Structure formats: structure tokens, C-alpha cells
Amino acid sequence: MARKFFVGGNWKCNGTSEEVQKIVSTLNDGKIESPEAVEVVVSPPFVFLPLVKSSLRPDFHVAAQNCWVKKGGAFTGEISAEMLVNLGIPWVIIGHSERRLLLNESNEFVGDKVAYALSKGLKVIACVGETLEQRESGSTLEVVAAQTKAIAAALPFSDPRIGLHGPLDQLSDTVGNRTSGKDKVDAPEGSWTCDKCNNLNYPFRNMCNRKGCGSEKPSSSSK
User: Fold this and answer.
1) Calculated CA dihedral for residues 191, 192, 194, 197, nearest 10 degrees
2) Class of domain 62-70+77-171
């Protein structure tokens, strides 16, 4: 089975209605492979969610940038998962670095938010990753493991509607394209090297993650 690529764009706290309409127009004119090969998700600010959803091409999807940890109520300024479902928004970003760092969202709080959003039928882009300071101190794997374990601990089962996004200051789809110095993140135990293209893949991948390769994981593989 061919791997489906995921392309996401977080617009953060930016834009006017005129600027958003221009971006949507550009996206609508874009050329991509079939929806079976790639999934595109954009995440505008909350106030623009209905505008983007109503005008964006149907094979692209919309994500909210956050949602609350429980059902709505006396939580001024928050958006509930139920509200997003009511608007027909299929995706939500949870645990973004800016919320972790600026608003002090803990690993456990992020895990609870992920679990609640999934329980209401949303698909989740869960953000994990280390800061530059944590990377330079050599604590990358410890930090990312703690964040990931907190999310896993909050879930009653493994859910295919969750995808991980990170690290905080530099993103990479595979472990293999960070090569040296401060940008290098050591591969987790069990990672495997593709025999065909020499790409380094995470342990949970059964097929090579490099575009155009798709080779199967060797029956016995090591880092």
C-alpha cells in the first residue's frame, strides 16, 4: 500500500479577511497529485474558519489551531471540540510549541486535550518536540518521549486519526535528514536504514518514508 503524504499549513495569528481570501484563491488554483496520494490541511485563525471552509476546494481540509480540554461552559476565550464538530471542521492542532511555552500547557494537559478531541470525532495534529536549548543540552529524546508518552497514556487505544508534528524549532519528516551539529536528532532505538536508498526511518514505519522509494522494512533491521 502506497504511503499517503500529509501537508499542513498553520497560519497562526495572522491575516485579514482579504488576505485569507487571496491565500485560499492561490490554494484553489494549486496543482497536486490525487487526494489518494496527498492530504492537504490548512489551519487559519478561529475567526476565519467558516470563511476558509466555505471557499476552500473540497479536496483540501481545514483545521482549528486549538480546542478546549472538555465540553464547553464558563471558559472565556476557549473553543470546544463540540463547536468545531458543529462547524464541520475535521482537524485540530493540539499542543503547539507556542501554547506549551507561552501558556504553560503541560504534557498531561495536552494529552487530555488530544483524548477529548478524538472522543468527539476530530482528527488531531498533536505537536511534540524540543526547544533549541533542550536540544543543545542533549535532552531531546527525553523531552520528546515524555510528551509522546503523555499523549499515549491519555488514549484508551491507538488511534489512526492522530498525527505527530515536531520538533519545535525545526521540522523533519524523517530522522535521516538531520545530519550534524545542533540540527542532528539521534534516531530512536529500532530505527532502520532502507536497503534501496539508505534513508533512516523511525521504528514504527513499515515502509521507507523517502518520497519515491516505498521499500518495505527489512525483516531484521537495526539502527
Assistant:
1) 50
2) alpha beta
